[in-house]
Amino acid sequence: MIITGSNYSTVTSVKFNGTSAAFIINNSGQVTATVPVGATTGLISVTNPCGTVSSASSFTVTPSSVTLNLKVYIEGFYLSGGLMAAVADPVGHPALCDTFTIELHNAASPYGVAQSVSGPIATNGLGSFVYPSAVTGNSYYVVIRHRNALETWSKNPVLFNASTISLDLTSP
Predict the structure, then answer these.
(1) Quick one: 97 and 148 in the same domain?
(2) How many C-beta neighbours within 10 Å does residue 46 have?
(3) Domain count of the fold of the chain
(4) Could you tell me which of 19, 9, 10 has the C-alpha nearest to residue 59?
(5) Eight-state DSSP code of residue 37
(6) Is residue 59 part of a domain?
(7) Which of 21, 97, 154, 160 could form a disulfide bond with 33, CB atoms 3.0-4.6 angstroms apart?
């Protein structure tokens, strides 16, 4: 990203919302910075021996993907004590319950499927599902599908506003 300003020939640091970035001084009016891993939406600050100046508006960081960390129990598989049966392969994968499809449905009628990802959920009810960055900033109903269970929807749409979203469907 190219940052323009003045007195940049002596820049000592560039930060994206407090996260340090690698940079190259192009000339006294321009610095090229690399958006660092872990950067979040916020102000860009540039420091030189005279002080620090920050951008007038926020720089928006869009993650390359969004991870949904989900906790869910399926009634027919639930044993007790927060554990489900290892259905898929009890001998080879005793900590794996089964494979599920987790859909994101639009928050407005007709509630069409926006994204769909399949993956495992462990016997403790935990699973992680990765969606493309296109879901960022939008709200979706989270729908759990399994070949041997009733389709289950989240009570309310979930806002996907970070690189990691956690949803626990095991507590009220």
Answers:
(1) yes
(2) 22
(3) 2
(4) 19
(5) T
(6) no
(7) 21
- Determine contact, residues 21/39, Cβ cutoff 8 Å: yes
Q: Which DSSP string do the residues of 38-99 spell out, in sequence order?
A: T--SB-EEEEETTEEEE-SSPBPP--SEEEEEEE---GGGEEETTEE---S-TTT-TTEEEE
Largest CA distance in the chain: 67
Asked if 120 and 161 sit in the same domain, the reply is: yes
Q: Say yes or no: 129 and 82 in one domain.
A: yes
Q: Please give the model's pTM, rounded to 2 decimal places.
A: 0.68
Measured CA to CA, the distance from residue 89 to residue 172 in angstroms comes to: 30
- Domain holding 78, by residue range, is 65-168
138 vs 52: CA distance, rounded Å? 34
For 141, residues 6+ apart whose C-beta sits below 8 A from its C-beta are 104, 105, 106, 107, 111, 153, 154, 156, 157, 158
Residues 50 and 90 in one domain: no
Query: Is 48 contained in some domain?
Result: yes
How do residues 17-47 score in pLDDT, each as one tens digit? 999 999 999 999 999 999 887 788 899 999 9
Could you tell me if residue 161 is inside a domain?
Answer: yes
pLDDT digits (tens, 9 = 90+) for 143-156: 999 998 999 999 99
pLDDT at 172 over 90: no
